[in-house]
């Protein structure tokens, strides 16, 4: 169930970033059992890390706080609609509910280029955004096969 106080915290983290210069105006909190487990704000500029979005930072901190990569049962509040990278991380973390404030269009209006990534994905990952080429599967598949065999013995 949505609770405005958590979105207010995410919005405050985003606003603090406007003056801190750590990164873009994005903030996030992760909640479990009505308690904030972790928070994060965009740290792309200060960390020199293009993956240090507010959601990613918060997910990393929540995993550390809970001692697990599985954030099932957590709810994420973010000041803006998550970019494709953050959406993927949220899904990988098993978070099933996200509340967001600003829209993807709001982010585009201030210069963020999420739409180009969405278009690239929708195009079947064709075009000038990124070239992907497969090579040497016969070399790389060995690790996958070893992992699969290991998983069978563990369960």
Topology of helices and strands:
Blueprint: H1 4-20, E1 27-32, E2 35-41, H2 44-47, H3 54-66, E3 74-80, H4 84-92, E4 97-102, H5 104-109, H6 114-122, H7 137-154
Parallel strand pairs: 3-4
Antiparallel strand pairs: 1-2, 1-3
Characterise the protein shown here.
It is built from 7 helices and 4 strands. With 155 residues, the chain is an alpha+beta fold. It has a 4-stranded mixed β-sheet. The longest helix is centred in the last third of the chain and has 18 residues, at 137-154. The chain is globular, with a radius of gyration of 18 Å. The mean pLDDT is 93.
Spatial strand order of the main sheet: 2-1-3-4
Give the proportion of residues in helices: 40-55%
Averaged pLDDT, please? 93
Gyration radius (Cα, Å) is 18 Å
What's this entry about, in short?
This protein has 155 residues and is α+β, with helices and mostly antiparallel strands. It contains 7 helices and 4 strands; from the N terminus they run αββααβαβααα.
Describe this protein with a few key phrases.
155 residues, alpha+beta, 4-stranded mixed β-sheet, 7 helices, 4 strands, 17% strand, globular
């Amino acid at each position: 169930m949505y609770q405005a106080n958590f979105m207010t915290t995410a919005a405050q983290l985003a606003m603090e970033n406007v003056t801190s210069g750590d990164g873009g105006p994005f903030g996030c909190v992760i909640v479990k059992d009505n308690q904030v487990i972790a928070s994060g704000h965009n740290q792309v500029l200060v960390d020199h890390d293009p993956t240090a979005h507010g959601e990613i930072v918060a997910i990393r901190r929540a995993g550390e706080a809970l001692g697990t990569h599985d954030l099932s049962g957590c709810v994420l509040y973010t000041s803006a609609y998550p970019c494709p990278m953050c959406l993927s991380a949220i899904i990988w973390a098993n978070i099933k509910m996200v509340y967001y404030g600003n829209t993807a269009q709001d982010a585009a209006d201030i210069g963020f280029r999420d739409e180009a990534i969405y278009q690239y994905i929708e195009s079947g990952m064709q075009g000038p955004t990124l070239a992907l080429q497969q090579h040497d599967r016969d070399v790389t598949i060995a690790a996958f096969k070893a992992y699969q065999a290991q998983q069978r013995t563990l369960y």
